[in-house]
Structures are given as structure tokens and as C-alpha cells.
UniProtKB/TrEMBL annotation:
One of its GO terms (molecular function) is peptide-O-fucosyltransferase activity. Catalyzes the reaction that attaches fucose through an O-glycosidic linkage to a conserved serine or threonine residue in the consensus sequence C1-X-X-S/T-C2 of thrombospondin type I repeats (TSRs) where C1 and C2 are the first and second cysteines of the repeat, respectively. O-fucosylates members of several protein families including the ADAMTS, the thrombospondin (TSP) and spondin families. Required for the proper secretion of ADAMTS family members such as ADAMTSL1 and ADAMTS13. Its EC number is 2.4.1.221. It comes from Hymenochirus boettgeri. Its main location: endoplasmic reticulum. This is GDP-fucose protein O-fucosyltransferase 2. It is an enzyme of class 2 (transferase). PANTHER family: GDP-FUCOSE PROTEIN O-FUCOSYLTRANSFERASE 2. Belongs to the glycosyltransferase 68 family. GO terms for cellular component: endoplasmic reticulum membrane; Golgi apparatus. Pathway: Protein modification; protein glycosylation. It catalyses: L-threonyl-[protein] + GDP-beta-L-fucose = 3-O-(alpha-L-fucosyl)-L-threonyl-[protein] + GDP + H(+); L-seryl-[protein] + GDP-beta-L-fucose = 3-O-(alpha-L-fucosyl)-L-seryl-[protein] + GDP + H(+).
Length: 433
């Protein structure tokens, strides 16, 4: 536990003060539990906890999308009773490969501004849940899955049913009858009951069931990505998306880099940031952006499949040079997950390339997730952005630029594959306020 707080930097102290001690043995939990079960069904104000997790191979930016779905489920639940969303600690992500860095049990406050999240729906960190709910126990785990028989042709209906588990269960019963599992790296956490649910439909289809079929106070939805958006791109979607403000310490680093290396600042760029996201009501157009082009070049697993819509480095470099000329810019900021070999090639092809390269200390401090956010923040403030086809990393940059008020044609652009015939450009999603 102490390992996470080895750093003395002042802004980490902030986190410390909000993170209570993990505690409590079973006895305490049982005591707390029986006290509350007496009032079950009688007290509408009783706090219930919604927890969730996502399929392990999914990356950071798809997980951000699943958060939006869970937030709309929480809003639906809150119409009937008192619920809070417990933020699933970050960690063990496939793309976070920097060696020797402790990258599990990371609280959301290291990446996002909790106060901003909390202005949209009531959220708490997992460590707060442990302290508040009386210990490392989750009463009911539902593992979400599809239907074994698939979709019946021609009929789409939203439904949820208790069904036998289709895949091998990632939880196992210990000798005391508790379920053990990954639980975000919290080994002491146990589930009282694990059940598989087949679901088809948007996040809120499960709401009625959570309200009526179970009295569990803490409920975890595992494989939550099986629930779809209630209304992708609607007001509720955008409210939640706008509330996902990056943590201040990461924005500050991004802004310093913009100022020092790219001669970019909010006043000149007309990209004014408000601490209160609810006060921002941008219209597309007024944002100008810093005097640089930004490109997101997704490599690794995106090129291993030889996808038709992902360019070679040569082709990407050509496109970047064309754009620099057209836009009369001489700097290009490149965000990429390219390996060392690809990076060398990129430097050769694009000598004017600028990148955010953290020192080891910065990497240890911000972690792979924080560095990716800094890359996204810098891309979001460029005069013009071009991303990689169907990368959620690029999609989140589109949204950030939309919030900042950029003209759509400076945002919804992507590289084309070398032999791609029909290079369709990304969809423009307008904010609904
Ligand atoms: N720092 C940094 N990391 C990146 C970049 N592109 C990809 N990554 C890493 O690779 C992951 C990609 O997975 P994901 O977020 O799911 O986006 P997607 O797979 O592109 O849809 C990111 O979360 C980052 O960890 C980049 O430009 N800069
Ligand atoms: C929830 O309860 C209703 C009514 O008892 C039942 O018909 C339904 O199958 C239950 N749903 C699940 C997912 O258990
Ligand atoms: C576990 O939960 C399911 C769904 O609520 C329920 O049908 C089942 O009886 C529970 N099992 C135990 C052992 O309590
Ligand atoms: Mg991914």
C-alpha cells in the first residue's frame, strides 16, 4: 500500500488526505451489514454502491467510454434510490508497458478531476468504498455476457436474464465460500455471490433488475462493456463526457509544454479553459489553436493486423508534409505508441517532428496513462488535428476539441491507408447542451 505514496510531491498529499485506510475485518463488516439489513426496504435514503469492471484486454480510452454508459445507468438508478458509482481503480492495462513502474490500484484522481466528475453523478474512489461500506466485500457480482443463442434475426429487444455462465468464470470460491477474483488488484476483496447475466441492450435495461430483484447494497457489474449506450451522442452522453476533465497536474504539464515548445497559450489560441465544465457552452468555430499541426499515429496492435485503413510511416509523413504546407505551419506535434524502431524511422522522415518525451521521473509520476493524457491534451490544442482510423484514443481527442470549440474541419480528420480506396473521414458529433 505504501508503495503508491512513495512520492512526496505536494499534489499527492492532496490524494492522501482523501484516501482512507483500507481496513476492517469480516466481523466489522458483518456488524455493519446486519445493522443496515434491518432497515432494508424501509429507508429510501440507504446508500447503495454500483461497481464495475471491463474486459481486461480493453484499453484506457474504451474504458472511458464504458464510464459514460455506467454514468447513465447511475442516473437512472438515482431516480428511484440513493446510489453512488465506485470508480474502478486503473491498472494492468495491456498498453501500459513501461517497466519498473507500479501501475495497479491507481485511483481516478491521478487522471481525472474528481470534483468535475462528481458534479455529474455521485462518484467515490474504491478506497473510499472500502472505508465507507465496512470492508473489502462486494455483496453481489454480476458477470455480464451475451446470449448463448445469439440475436434472433429481425427482432431486437432489450432484455436481461439470469443464465448459466458462457465463458469460464474468472472468479473462484475460496474455502470460506467467498469468491476471489482480480478486483482491480485488491487481493483482499471478496464477493459474496457471483452470477452470470445475459444482457442485450443499453445500460439502463439492467436498472429495473438492480432495483427490484436484489437487495444487495454493493453490486458489481463485471464485463460492463456488454451494456450499450443509452443514447450515444445525446445530452446525457455529453454531460458525462464534459465532466471527464483531466486532472489538473496533467493539464499543467501539457500547458507548459505548449508554451515552451510550441508557442501555444490559451489566450492567443482562443481555447479558454473553465474550471467548472458546466459553465462552458462553446459553439464550434471560435477556437483557433496553437501554431502547430498535431497527429496521432496509432501503431502496435493497429499495424500487426495489416489493417487497410492504417498508413505506413512513409505515407503518414507525406500527408503531414502536405498539411504543413497547406496550413502554413512549420511544427508538427506527434503523439504515437510507435516502438523504438518506428520512432527512428519517423525522425528520419519527419525531422521537424516534436514529441512529448517524459523523463524517467515524470514517467514514474504520471505513469503511462498520464503521459497519454498529456499527449491528448496537446493534440486537443493544435490548430489542426489528424488521427488514426477507429482509434478511441483519436476519438477522445475529437471530443476534447469539440468541447474547446474548434471548427469541425480542423478536427475530424484521419490518415488513410496506403491502398485504401474509400477513405471515409470520421463522423462529426455535435455537443448537445
Ligand atoms: N502516450 C501515448 N500513448 C498512446 C498513444 N497511442 C496509443 N497509446 C497507448 O495505447 C493505448 C491504446 O489503447 P486505447 O486507449 O484502447 O485506444 P485505441 O486502441 O487506439 O482505440 C492508449 O491507452 C495508450 O496507453 C499516443 O499517441 N501516445
Ligand atoms: C427479476 O424478477 C422478475 C420477477 O420476479 C423475474 O420475472 C425476472 O426473471 C427476474 N430477472 C432476473 C434477471 O433475475
Ligand atoms: C446468488 O444470486 C443469485 C441472483 O440474485 C440468486 O439467484 C442465488 O440464489 C444467489 N446464491 C446464493 C448462494 O445466495
Ligand atoms: Mg484499444
Amino acid at each position: 500500500m505504501a508503495a503508491r505514496f512513495f512520492l512526496g510531491w505536494s499534489f499527492f498529499i492532496l490524494f492522501l488526505s482523501t484516501v482512507p485506510q483500507t481496513c476492517c475485518d469480516e466481523v466489522q463488516f458483518q456488524a455493519g451489514h446486519s445493522a443496515t439489513s434491518m432497515s432494508l426496504g424501509t429507508s429510501a435514503a440507504e446508500q447503495r454502491y454500483l461497481l464495475y469492471d471491463v474486459n481486461p484486454p480493453e484499453g484506457f480510452n474504451l474504458r472511458r467510454d464504458v464510464y459514460i454508459r455506467m454514468a447513465s445507468l447511475l442516473k437512472t438508478l438515482q431516480k428511484t434510490s440513493n446510489w453512488v458509482l465506485v470508480l474502478p481503480p486503473w491498472g494492468r492495462l495491456y498498453h501500459w508497458q513501461s517497466p519498473d513502474i507500479h501501475q495497479i490500484r491507481i485511483p481516478w484522481a491521478e487522471f481525472f478531476d474528481l470534483k468535475s466528475l462528481d458534479q455529474n453523478i455521485h462518484v467515490i474512489e474504491y478506497e473510499d468504498f472500502l472505508a465507507e461500506s465496512g470492508g473489502p466485500f462486494i455483496e453481489q457480482v454480476y458477470v455480464l455476457q451475451g446470449y448463448a443463442e445469439g440475436w434472433k434475426e429481425g427482432t431486437w429487444e432489450e432484455k436481461v436474464d439470469q443464465r448459466p455462465c458462457i465463458d469460464q468464470l474468472m472468479y473462484s470460491e475460496d474455502r470460506n465460500g467467498y469468491y476471489r477474483g482480480w478486483f482491480w488488484g485488491y487481493e483482499e476483496t471478496r464477493g459474496h455471490n457471483v452470477t452470470c447475466l445475459s444482457v442485450q441492450g443499453s445500460a439502463s435495461v439492467i436498472a429495473a433488475m438492480l432495483l427490484k430483484n436484489t437487495t444487495a447494497r454493493s453490486i458489481m457489474l463485471d464485463r460492463a462493456e456488454n451494456l450499450l449506450h443509452d443514447h450515444y451522442g445525446g445530452k446525457d452522453y455529453w454531460d458525462t463526457r464534459r465532466s471527464m476533465v483531466f486532472a489538473k497536474h496533467l493539464r499543467v504539464i501539457g500547458d507548459e509544454f505548449r508554451a515552451k515548445v510550441l508557442q501555444s497559450n490559451d489566450n492567443a489560441d482562443k481555447t479558454i479553459f473553465h474550471e467548472d465544465w458546466k459553465k462552458v457552452k462553446g459553439k464550434p468555430g471560435p477556437a483557433l489553436g496553437g501554431p502547430y499541426l498535431a497527429a496521432h499515429l496509432r501503431r502496435k496492435d493497429f499495424i500487426w493486423g495489416h489493417r487497410e485503413d492504417v498508413p505506413s510511416l512513409r505515407k503518414a509523413a507525406d500527408e503531414i508534409h502536405k498539411l504543413l504546407k497547406k496550413l502554413k505551419l512549420n511544427k508538427v506535434f506527434v503523439a504515437t505508441d510507435a516502438d523504438q524502431e518506428d520512432l527512428q524511422e519517423l525522425r528520419k522522415q519527419i525531422p521537424e517532428m516534436v514529441r512529448f518525451e517524459p523523463t524517467w521521473e515524470e514517467l514514474e509520476l504520471f505513469k503511462d496513462g498520464g503521459v497519454a493524457i498529456i499527449d491528448q491534451w496537446i493534440c486537443a490544442h493544435a490548430r489542426y488535428f489528424i488521427g488514426t482510423s477507429v482509434s478511441t484514443f483519436s476519438f477522445r481527442i475529437h471530443e476534447e476539441r469539440e468541447i474547446l470549440g474548434f471548427e469541425p474541419k480542423t478536427t475530424y480528420n484521419r490518415f488513410c491507408g496506403d491502398k485504401e480506396k474509400n477513405c471515409e473521414q470520421p463522423t462529426h458529433w455535435k455537443i448537445v447542451y
